[in-house]
Amino acid sequence: MRDFAVSAVDLRKSYGKDQTKVHALAGVTVGFERGHFTAIMGPSGSGKSTLMHCLAGLDSATTGQIWLGETEITGLKDKELTRLRRDRVGFVFQSFNLVPTLTARQNILLPLELAGRSHDAEWYDYVTEVLGLTSRLRHKPHELSGGQQQRVAVARALLSRPDVIFGDEPTGNLDSVSGAEVLGLLRRSVRELGQTVVMVTHDPVAASYADRVVLLADGKLAGEITDPTADDVIEAMRGLGSAGVAA
């Protein structure tokens, strides 16, 4: 499992106690290869968001192991987890999480500046050019379209060259055109920049941009699809008794 960018072994996550106890994850073992784009899908309540939050160190597992590369993150203290998320993990959320008073450039650089780290100017120029942001770097979020704001969020996630970028419904607040644009950029970051992306989505079209789709149901793995099409994903979700609504 340690050859993966991120992986989990017999991962279990429960909420509540006794009769109210809910098993959000019920023994999930899964790995995500470096340099690949993977989508996680499942019916509402399947555990897909819980899995991503545990893998990213945003939530703790009840039992089991999580590895980021060769680092086991289960059992790390809060300060160690904070440092790991800051240095080795990137995030792209449904809400863009940009600071409204800062320019696009300042938003992109903010995490590194807060960490007291300098940025690689050549890498910054390359990332912003690939993402089509060069002419928008002096603009503040309210001066950018939704798609452009999400591009800024993607650039921010890429700048530290993280081990993995986690996307939590990254196109959920975008129209279809902007959503396709952002998904295309995530795929390019994998194919051209060697990034690893793990994305939770309820949208079969969004999932079709991935190299692989991991399916969850009732907190357990329920299959996977390689080189998926939207029709493949829709058919698989029907087999799980869902049209693909969000969890």
UniProtKB/TrEMBL annotation:
Q: Which top-rank group of organisms is this from?
A: Bacteria
**Could you tell me which residue ranges the AAA+ ATPase domain spans?**
34-220
Is Transport among the key words of this record?
yes
Record's keyword annotation contains Transport = yes
Pfam families membership: ABC_tran
Q: Which UniProt keywords apply?
A: ATP-binding, Nucleotide-binding, Transport
List GO molecular-function terms, semicolon-separated.
ATP binding
Q: Which PANTHER family match?
A: ABC TRANSPORTER RELATED, IMPORT ATP-BINDING PROTEIN
Q: In its UniProt entry, what is this protein called? A: ABC transporter ATP-binding protein
Organism this protein belongs to: Saxibacter everestensis
